[in-house]
């Protein structure tokens, strides 16, 4: 199964601009009304949750009060879940930004571990003499049907560790270089893989040969929806396919992303999903540098 009906979302208490994360997250910016950032983010989070719940998405809403991190609203970076014929697995990941490592709540991990057959903790790689990082489904965009993990190599997404992950998880790793001035910090801002379609910003890949190879690879199993750099900067790549309460496919995105897709692109998306669900999250996008996909951790 490519998409989940169950997700986890973490309330953005203590939300704000994270200067350490913003060093390589070029999507994060200061904004007016930063003194109200927590209240604004909480309102946006509640709005997104309500819209997803109305579609029949099962949401585990975590209030991780012991975690004091401005970015805890983005749980998909520190864990992922997997369910295969041979069993289910919870995986923890090493994070580059030191003040984000506290997001791995002991209480939440214990709760998650009770739901899965096995547990694989990679977080110790961040403590090595030469640290290695792999930030969950921010780094790895997964085609779960065809067992391909797509990754844009960056300071947060190390090839060697991703190769170990792929070998253990039974995936093919497809890595590439994506950058506009700086490497794309997370793959999931420029690529989203659905069941039968993929949304990708190929303009981010400077090498023409590499760009063509990725296009052809994605087109093996998916209809391609190409977005521009400008659309990527409006979080059109940071979207996620989910399964509604009646088994229908839907695509979750922010209001900014929805308004940035062209009518023809939306028509193509609606050939593959039954509904587009969007909600405004401008404070979280601007200060946090992450969108709707980053706010959702799938529970398989």
Q: Topology as H/E string? A: EHEEEHEHEEHEEEEEHEHEEHHEHE
Rg from alpha-carbon coordinates = 18 Å
The coarse overall form would be globular
Average of pLDDT = 96
What's the helical proportion of residues? 25-40%
| Annotated CATH topology | L-arginine/glycine Amidinotransferase, Chain A
CATH superfamily: L-arginine/glycine Amidinotransferase, Chain A
Largest sheet: 3 strands, mixed
CATH class: Alpha Beta
How many β-strands, per DSSP?
17
Instruction: Label the CATH architecture.
Output: 5-stranded Propeller
3D structure, described in words:
By secondary structure, the chain is an alpha/beta fold. It has helices at 37-54, 106-113, 136-139, 159-169, 208-219, 229-233, 255-260, 263-269, 282-288; strands at 6-10, 58-62, 79-84, 87-92, 118-121, 141-143, 148-152, 172-176, 179-180, 182-183, 191-193, 197-200, 223-226, 240-243, 249-254, 275-279, 297-298. The strands form six sheets. The protein has a three-stranded mixed beta sheet, with helices on one face. The longest helix is centred in the N-terminal third of the chain and has 18 residues, at 37-54. It is globular, with a radius of gyration of 18 Å. The termini are close together.
Main attributes of the structure:
300 residues; alpha/beta; three-stranded mixed beta sheet; L-arginine/glycine Amidinotransferase, Chain A; single chain; globular
């Amino acid at each position: 199964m490519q998409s989940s009906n169950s997700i986890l979302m973490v309330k953005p208490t203590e939300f704000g601009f994270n200067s350490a994360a913003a060093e390589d997250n070029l999507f994060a910016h200061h904004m007016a009304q930063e003194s109200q950032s927590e209240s604004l983010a909480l309102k946006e989070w509640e709005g997104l949750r309500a819209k997803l719940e109305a579609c029949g998405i099962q949401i585990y809403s975590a209030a991780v009060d012991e975690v004091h991190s401005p970015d805890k609203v983005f749980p998909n970076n520190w864990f992922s879940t997997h369910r295969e014929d041979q069993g289910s697995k919870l995986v923890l990941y090493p994070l580059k930004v030191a003040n984000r490592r506290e997001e791995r709540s002991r209480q939440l991990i214990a709760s998650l571990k009770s739901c899965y057959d096995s547990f694989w903790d990679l977080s110790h790689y961040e403590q090595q003499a030469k640290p290695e990082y792999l930030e969950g489904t921010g780094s790895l965009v997964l085609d779960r049907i065809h067992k391909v993990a797509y990754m844009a190599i960056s300071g947060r997404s190390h090839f060697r560790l991703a190769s170990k992950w792929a070998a253990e998880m039974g995936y093919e790793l497809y890595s590439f270089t994506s950058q506009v001035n700086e490497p794309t910090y997370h793959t999931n801002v420029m690529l989203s893989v659905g069941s039968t379609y993929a949304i990708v910003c190929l303009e981010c890949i400077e090498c023409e040969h590499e760009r063509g190879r990725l296009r052809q690879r994605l087109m093996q199993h998916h209809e391609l929806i190409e977005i521009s750099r400008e659309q990527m900067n409006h979080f059109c790549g940071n979207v996620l396919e989910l399964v509604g309460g009646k088994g229908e496919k839907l695509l979750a995105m922010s209001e900014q992303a929805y308004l940035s897709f062209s009518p023809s692109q939306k028509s193509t998306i609606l050939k593959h999903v039954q509904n587009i669900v969007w909600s405004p999250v401008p404070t979280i996008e601007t200060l946090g540098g992450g969108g709707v996909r980053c706010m959702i951790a799938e529970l398989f």
